[in-house]
Amino acid sequence: MTAIEIRNLAKSFGPVRAVDDVSFTVEAGTVTGYLGPNGAGKTTTLRSLLGLVTPDAGEALVNGQRYASLAHPLNEVGAVLEATSFHPGRTARNHLRIMCTAAGLPATRADEALEQVGLADAAGKRVGGFSLGMRQRLALGGALLGNPKIYILDEPANGLDPAGIQWLRGFLRHLAHDQGAAVLVSSHVLAEVEQTVDNVVIIAKGRLVRQGTLAELTQNGESAVRVRTTADFAPALEEAGARVEKVEPGLLRVYGLEAETIGQLALDHKVLLTEVAHERSDLQKVFLELTGEPVAAEAAQ
Amino acid sequence: MTALIRAELQKLFTTRIWWAMLIVMLLLVGLNLFFIIAFAGDTPQNGAAPGLPGLEDPSWLQMALSVGSSGTIFTMILGIIMMTSEYRYQTITGTFLTTPRRGRVIAAKLGAGVLVGLLFAVVALVVVGVVAVTAVLIAGGEVSFTESRVPQIAIGVVASLALYAMFGIGLGALIRNQIAALIGGIVWAYVIESIFAAIPALQGVGKWLPGGGTQALMSIDIDTGLGESQLLPAWGGALLLVGYAVLFAVVANLTTTKRDIT
User: Fold this and answer.
1) Is B97–A79 a contact, with Cβ atoms under 8 angstroms apart?
2) H or E stretch covering A199
3) Domains of chain A with bracketed CATH
4) Backbone dihedral region of A270: left (phi > 0), alpha (psi from -120 to 50 degrees) or beta?
5) pLDDT, tens digit, for every residue of A219-272?
6) In this predicted complex, what is the ipTM?
7) How many independent structural domains does chain B possess?
8) Which residue of B has its CA nearest to A48?
9) How far is A122 from B160, CA to CA, in rounded Å?
10) Does B61 map to a domain?
11) Do B4 and A87 touch (CB under 8 A)?
């Protein structure tokens, strides 16, 4: 059975078509990145999946059912939504214990989950004093309570420090690849999930623009080699069949030639290269092209 | 459902608002009681309205105990807060993720509200009872809990505080904005209700309002000087309050609670 299935989902808020005929699936044992710029419709899709938003058309199913009809939702689906949804005066432990009570889970799960997300030391502290990163960890702790096999996370890396992001990547991979869970994780920053995800679904302006494995996606992006040299090396490269882009004085981006070939050419032409670097799949560029984001956004990152 | 009610009680007792509200309620009840003790047996000079009965008078104890019903405003406020703080802090998202059948969440809150109201009522009655009985004994009066209408009044206080908590939750479910719901509830209780209670021509309508329900529950017939007010029987008053809470909750369930949580 497909863990997550979205079929022809559509949802409008007033005149805005937030999600327009989106369909994709997430299988057990994989991490799927749900990518798109802010306002693309990611959150609406995920909230439809969790029964918080009623779609206008289509279906969003978990384990073949609508979320609202699950008898024990926390045992089937773990969700991490925006980080602000805690009562500031309540402690982390109490927050999770209330979830346990309502879901019929033993209260001991609260401390176990806090341990798992590295918040054991802050268990008795009020959430009002938590950093954004700690709130994200607490939200993740809530998702883990029922040991579900499906995880739905909306921008979970927001507010995490680099170490936290690193930890999250490993944790999501562990859930999917070691425990066989289906993980759907949204992000507006491709680089955040690039090293984590197996599959990618890209959405822009409410419409699905691409879906496939990460490898399939990167094939569309041409790989390039950065070459730094003060010599006039471009004609020689072009003669050898490369396409050369002059990035700045002394820095070339070379398409269509391997780094080794470029090195050989440099030797043949007695040109000094101060840098030769393979620019791995220009995934970010592909992403920006697909989602129609102005490239300026890249610089703003 | 018991698990959900327990979760709702846990939500309330893991934050600080409940004891702040309890203390404020006790302060107000204490102030009321202070004046009733201080002016016991006082007769106004003009003689138009009867004054307070003396401490030895059995009807004084009835009156003192009924002061507990002034706690209704606080259980109502607490009920409103129990419901609306879910929207205010967006904890409603997590609540509906844990319990996607939203009607069950509202039902559990109504149940938890009744229990919290009962707790408040018992605390109020114990405090009022201890102070009032002490005052009567010091004044040399006699105390009898079975005589007069002491048990009825105690039941009236308990029921009205419990049902007002429910009423507050129903109101909060309907008006999700915390400030709006609080203002609405307080204006209703202090302004609109008192208009209907004070003007004889409106009392026929007033008895069908929540305040009229409370008065029926207390059904303490101390002459206000405006003549006997036409109240519902006590059970009718109780049903009326339950009816308001359930009506609000059901309407909320069909409207506000159904809305998308974004």
Assistant:
1) yes
2) strand A199-204
3) 4-218 (3.40.50.300), 222-280 (3.30.70.790)
4) left
5) 655 677 889 988 888 888 888 888 888 888 888 888 888 888 889 889 998 889
6) 0.85
7) 1
8) B260
9) 41
10) yes
11) no
